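Q: Convert this sequence to structure tokens.
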Amino acid sequence: MPGRLDAPRLYAALDAQREARGLSWRQLAAEAGVSPSLVSRMGNGHRPDLDGFIALVQWLGMPAETFMVWPEGAREKRARPSLEAQLAPLLRAEEELSEADQQHVLDVVGITLRHMRARHKGG
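A:
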């Protein structure tokens, strides 16, 4: 079974934050940038679409992984993302770097890591 969204957990977190801030569901939807019908459907057990999910977890200020259900043992077995994969979004967020500069940094890191891995395998 692949990982999936725990929609009830997301809805409960939204409800708790909504109540803590004294908001109506309509106000929450407006602040999060989603339709009121989306949060209403979630209250009836439906899952949000990807864009809605992203908007809601950003509104909550919580990591998306908080609302993921992992198959038994899958979380422990999953491969850790490469350093390049972890760096890419950080570089993309740097407004002062052009796309070419971002790619250059990733290329340099990739070459350096391949060199280091090859050296460690040989030694």
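The chain has two domains: 4-76, 83-122.
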